[in-house]
Amino acid sequence: MIVFSDPISIIINNTCNLTCSNCGSNNQYNYRGVYNWLDYAEHFREWQKKIDFVEINIVGGEPFLHTDLATWAIELKKLWPNALVSVDTNGTLLGLEKNVHVARTLLENDIKLMVFWHTAHDINRGEVFLNKILEPYDIEIVVEDGYQVGTTRNIYYEVHSQNVLAELGLTDRYFPSTIKEIKNGIVYLDDTDDIQASHDVCHYATDCVSIQCGLMYKCTLPMTYANSKDQFTYEERVRPLLDQYKACSPFWEYNKIKQFIENLKNPIPQCRFCAFDKRAGSKDCTIPVTFDKSLKKIPTVNLASANEY
Predict the structure, then answer these.
(1) Does one domain contain both 15 and 131?
(2) What pTM was computed for the model?
(3) How many CB atoms lie within 10 A of CB 9?
(4) How far apart are CA 55 and CA 57, in angstroms?
(5) CA 261, 266, 268, 272 torsion: positive or negative?
(6) What is the pLDDT of residues 38-58, one digit of tens each?
(7) At a CB cut-off of 8 Å and minimum separation 6, what does 304 contact?
(8) What gap in Å lies between CA 19 and CA 28, rounded to an integer?
């Protein structure tokens, strides 16, 4: 059994109601994809036979847009009962009555609610929503930090009640995007000759291992490409190398999976397209989040003619 001590993100949908600039998963664009638990349940049962996950973060997109969020979370918790399982949300939809009930179902099944508010001016709304969700419980605030609007990020408090655990934070700054630009509907990436240098300063290189559609990816770029290349038009230059990336399947032989995991901390050839070594101090550089609804209008590939690209 492989013990996976770093957090693993499980992506259950690409759809999002926000358009955060520099979103690591490209969900600020018109990125489609909602995944059903039953379609991938066998993958996760196979993962459970081979890997002991310590921390599982259920993410999107915005997971509260998924109509079967509770099933995903509860089934994953059953497979890894000793893991810290959380649902990571931007919090903006928690005021809806249906989501209040979903959130309580999660909490009552020992699943943590992680609320990452992205707008400093509106974080009070997050507190209101969370307090409504927690009304039935005996709340104990164990951490409460003050904040100054627009100057501080990742400010949070935790509340505990028996097995109930929730957290509210402010994350209004992101790391640079892996996309260089989108021009005339075409996605352009960067380029570098030094993949090790790019990897050394890349935030995504060390803590963004994800599973999407049952397969494990080292980082954001190959994962988003694999699931968006039939929706977005990537520049022709980058496609051959990105297509060569092989995500790890739970149905691989044990030793092959073990080797894949042991290599997760190392650069891959596709690191050349992030080229973070060209962005001085990118690992320490965060950029204020902005919102632009026009990003949802980025032209996407007509799936019927996707093979033309």
Answers:
(1) yes
(2) 0.92
(3) 23
(4) 7
(5) positive
(6) 999 999 999 999 999 999 999
(7) none
(8) 4
If phi > 0 it is left, if psi is from -120 to 50 it is alpha, else beta; for residue 110 that is left
Q: How many CB atoms lie within 10 A of CB 253?
A: 9
Residues 6+ apart with CB under 8 A from 207: 6, 7
The alpha carbon torsion through 127, 133, 135, 136 (nearest 10 deg) reads -160
Residues 186 and 169 in one domain: no
Contact 216, 4 (CB under 8 A): no
Please give the structure tokens belonging to residue 119: 């707008």
The confidence score (pLDDT) of residue 146 equals 58
The Cα diameter of the chain in Å comes to 58
pLDDT digits 0-9 by tens, 72-88: 999 999 999 999 999 99
Is residue 146 domain-shared with residue 239, that is, in the same domain?
A: no
User: What is the distance between the alpha carbons of residues 70 and 16, in angstroms, rounded to a whole number?
Assistant: 17
pLDDT digits (tens, 9 = 90+) for 155-214: 566 777 767 889 888 888 888 899 999 998 899 999 999 999 999 999 888 789 999 999
Domain count, the chain: 2
End-to-end CA distance of the chain: 42
Task: Name residue 181's beta-bridge partners.
Answer: 188
